[in-house]
Design brief:
470 residues, alpha+beta, Beta Polymerase, domain 2, Hydrophobic Seed Protein, Hypothetical protein af1432, seven-stranded mixed beta sheet, two-stranded antiparallel ribbon, 24 helices, 11% strand, elongated
């Protein structure tokens, strides 16, 4: 085993590699099986490897190897291990009998060459040599191979080592052809550049700009998946700005693109887009709901400021919901993002050092429910990035007060001592809007005093009925 390549590898990856080397030697697969792509790149960079991609330089080699190894392992199960994808000629399997290797998913495929068609990113593929397989890949850093039985790293593009050493993102072939064939690779280049904080080769960048218009042949699901990966990088604004500069942003996120042309009311030198990028980087949690909330939190502000009949935060939440649904995000994500945007300025009138009253805090907890964490993360990021009246400790103080109140579960699931039926029975009133009015008023008293009794609720309800009668 190559001691340098596996110096920082997980023990399971090492165990899998040793098992493969043992079982491949002396078989028809010897010297024809390679690790490839992200797993080799990450092993060289000393990063964790979660799954392994293998190519076999043999016609139908991927399917044959997966079945061979599953049988050798004693874990072969029809249609389950390996799982075969006939259309793509790939198969996934795991070594399930050996606990040292369990949990590492291995995907096998034959070496391939490709033929693309103008209106699709899905190529026709046929068996190809290992060199042809390397040259069809998206980036040189993803075209590094490790020959398992020879224990050697192979750089068939002639540029992979150099680009890894010098932190360069570059295509193996003519970038114009690479991105015209599959424009999704433009988003992948930006994602790798943002994730690794590496530069993009000049010719590669120009090829991205030239072919940005072809992104419309890509399905929304694939675009959304790449945008999510960009947003969950450590510094997501890096990727978002590159989407803007290469001509992709207005095609995939037009409402975010338009924020360039609106400006902060207290600082007209700062665009809403620039403020949003700062907030995006200040978000603590990397889950997609948190990042999307930051990305869209001001998306409707410019329009709302020209129409004072609508709340800027509510309008931004409405725009976010519409856009995220078009992007095919799940409903729970859409609703969580909208909730955080609606409430992220809940305490905007309170200056730094002044803790909002418990009633106000309880109302936020009740309104946000399970989305309280996302809301507070967005609130904190926005407070840090304000162009005026920054509030660096406000959210920290609020979180401490929430812990002191020890009412998170109660506030997110408010249950009054009485309900509508009790009101009808006790006060002799009919069903109708008045019931909702009374219960909402009682909730306000509950936020002030969670220990409010049934009798106190009825007394307050009688006062409300009398005031309405007048």
């Amino acid at each position: 085993m190559n001691d340098v390549l596996f110096k920082h590898a997980d023990e399971k990856v090492i165990a899998v590699t040793k098992k493969l080397e043992k079982w491949l030697k002396g078989s028809i697969f010897e010297d024809k099986v390679y690790y490839v792509g992200g797993c080799v790149r990450d092993l060289i960079l000393g990063k964790p490897v979660k799954d392994i991609d293998i190519v076999v330089e043999m016609k139908n080699g991927g399917l044959m190897l997966a079945n061979y190894l599953a049988v050798k392992d004693g874990s072969w199960v029809m249609d389950k291990n390996p799982v075969v994808f006939e259309t793509y000629g790939t198969a996934k399997f795991e070594f399930r009998k050996d606990p040292q290797c369990a949990g590492i998913e291995i995907e096998c495929v034959q070496t391939r060459k490709e033929q693309y068609h103008k209106e699709s990113r899905n190529p026709d593929t046929v068996f190809g040599t290992i060199q042809e397989d390397a040259m069809r890949r998206d980036l040189t850093i993803n075209a590094m191979y490790y020959n398992i039985t020879k224990e050697e790293i192979c750089d068939f593009t002639g540029s992979g080592y150099h680009d890894l050493a010098h932190n360069i993102i570059k295509t193996p072939c003519d970038p114009d052809i690479t991105f015209s064939d599959d424009p999704l690779r433009i988003l992948r280049v930006i994602r790798f550049s943002a994730r690794l904080n590496w530069g993009i080769n000049k010719e590669t960048w120009l090829g991205m700009v030239k072919n940005a218009y072809r992104i419309n042949i890509i399905s929304q699901e694939r675009i959304t998946d790449e945008i999510s990966k960009i947003l969950t990088c450590d510094h997501p604004s890096v990727g978002m700005r590159k989407l803007l500069y290469c001509g992709i942003l207005h095609r995939v996120l037009p409402d975010i693109y338009d924020m360039q042309f609106s400006f902060e009311s207290k600082n007209p030198a700062v665009s809403t887009f620039d403020h949003t990028m700062n907030v995006l980087d200040a978000i603590v949690d990397s889950h997609i709901e948190h990042r999307l909330a930051a990305l869209f939190h001001d998306v409707g502000r410019a329009m709302a400021e020209s129409d004072r009949t609508v709340s800027p935060n509510q309008f931004s939440a409405d725009v976010a919901m519409a856009d995220l649904r078009k992007m095919k995000y799940p409903n729970d994500v859409v609703n969580a993002v909208a909730c955080a945007i609606r409430h992220h300025e809940w305490f905007s009138t309170y200056t730094e050092g002044f803790l909002p009253p418990d009633k106000k805090i309880r109302k936020l907890m009740n309104s946000c429910g399970d989305n309280l964490g996302i809301t507070l993360d967005l609130m904190n990021a926005n407070n840090q990035c304000r162009t005026f009246n920054k509030k660096k400790t406000q959210v920290l103080q609020i979180m401490r007060r929430i812990e002191e109140l020890d009412e998170v579960e109660e506030m997110t699931n408010v249950k009054l001592p009485i309900d509508g039926n009790d009101l009808i029975k006790e006060l002799g009133i009919k069903k109708g809007p008045i019931i909702g009015v009374i219960l909402n008023e009682l909730k306000e008293d509950y936020f002030e005093n969670p220990e409010i009794t049934k009798e106190e609720c009825f007394e307050k309800a009688r006062e409300i009925v009398m005031s309405l009668a007048v």
